């Protein structure tokens, strides 16, 4: 027969506290491993326009260290949260979209540092890349942003490219569902380096190298003649957004030089410097303005793969 010994009350209390500490220790460890998908170290993503940290093997697109994630992959970062008023929207040419950016204090942000002449750049892209828009919502005094989008049925993602006053620039992303019969469109399987839009031809030269600085030059022509009088648009002669296929990691790439600096010519060439965070395929969208009209040309470039070309 096993002999049982009565345990005094103080010993039982100590044992209970030890057991409780062990449980909380396990819970804390689990939280670090599995804890909220929107969690992000305070130092993460400060350079949201071009993350430069390559990492080792991961999924097919590669992976990034948690403190060097590209922009747009999170709805919350550095204490700021993109909060859409509605994430289920109707299809249409002028579908309303309203949202706020909550700050670390939980209140909507009402003060921003303008970037390229705007407090907020909103990018909307359908996940199969068949739709893309770059718009500039208006902000109410209470911090609510409002705009309209031309949306077709399917899954979309919106990106808010911002610099809250006193904080580093960042890009937040959120998914949107658009009701209606969805007809998926296959993305180009090969690199696309020549795009045509409204009678303009835009040619892309250069390659993307994972984790290394890359130069891309886009040349604009019309009717076989180079366009040498591009309009300044938001403080530049062109704006380039790069999105990684698969997860839509976002890079807003800025051109070299700016209008009026004495050296940057208004076309036909617009050169951008960027660094992509991993090997894989990227969809690129160039906004340029000529004769008062903004147009968008789309390209596909493979970084670190067999589809790349040397130019």
Structure description:
This protein is mainly beta. It has 1 helix and 19 strands. The strands form 4 sheets. A 5-stranded antiparallel sheet has the order 1-2-4-8-7, with no helix packed on it. Strand 15 and strand 16 form a beta hairpin. The N terminus and C terminus are likely disordered.
Helix content percent band: under 10%
In order across it, which strands form the biggest sheet?
1-2-4-8-7
Distance between the termini: 86 Å
**Average predicted local confidence, pLDDT:** 82
* Low-confidence sequence ranges: 1-63, 307-311
**Helical/strand content category:** mainly beta
CATH topology of the domain at 194-303: Immunoglobulin-like
Biggest β-sheet description:
5 strands, antiparallel
Provide a count of the helices. 1
Compressed to H and E, one letter per element, the order equals HEEEEEEEEEEEEEEEEEEE
Shape: globular
The CATH architecture of the domain at 194-303 can be given as Sandwich
CATH class of the domain at 194-303: Mainly Beta
Task: Please state the CA-atom Rg, rounded to the nearest Å.
Answer: 24 Å
Annotation, overall tally of beta strands: 19
Content of β-strand: 35-45%
């Amino acid at each position: 027969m096993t002999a049982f010994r009565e345990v005094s009350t103080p010993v039982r209390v100590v044992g209970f506290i030890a057991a409780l500490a062990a449980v909380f220790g396990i819970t804390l460890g689990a939280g670090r491993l599995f804890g909220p998908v929107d969690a992000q170290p305070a130092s993460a993503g400060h350079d949201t326009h071009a993350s430069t940290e390559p990492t080792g093997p991961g999924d097919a697109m590669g992976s990034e260290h948690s403190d060097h994630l590209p922009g747009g992959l999170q709805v919350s970062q550095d204490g700021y949260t993109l909060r859409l008023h509605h994430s289920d929207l109707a299809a249409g040419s002028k579908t309303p979209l309203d949202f706020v950016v909550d700050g670390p204090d939980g209140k909507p942000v009402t003060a921003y540092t303008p970037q390229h002449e705007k407090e907020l750049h909103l990018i909307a892209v359908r996940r199969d890349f068949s739709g893309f828009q770059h718009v500039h919502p208006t902000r109410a005094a209470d911090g609510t942003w409002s705009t309209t989008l031309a949306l077709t049925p399917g899954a979309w993602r919106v990106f808010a490219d911002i610099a809250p006053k006193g904080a580093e620039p960042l890009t937040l992303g959120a998914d949107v569902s658009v009701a209606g019969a969805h007809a998926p469109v296959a993305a180009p399987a090969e690199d696309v380096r020549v795009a045509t839009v409204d009678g303009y031809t835009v040619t892309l030269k250069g390659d993307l190298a994972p984790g290394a600085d890359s130069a891309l030059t886009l040349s604009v022509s019309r009717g076989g003649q180079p366009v040498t009088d591009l309009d300044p648009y938001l403080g530049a002669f062109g704006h380039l957004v790069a999105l990684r296929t698969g997860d839509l990691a976002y890079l807003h790439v800025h051109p070299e030089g700016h209008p009026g600096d004495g050296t940057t010519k208004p076309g036909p060439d617009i050169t951008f410097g960027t660094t992509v965070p991993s090997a894989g395929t990227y969809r690129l969208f160039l906004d340029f303005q000529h004769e008062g009209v903004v147009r968008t040309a789309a390209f596909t470039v493979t970084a670190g793969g067999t589809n790349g070309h040397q130019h």
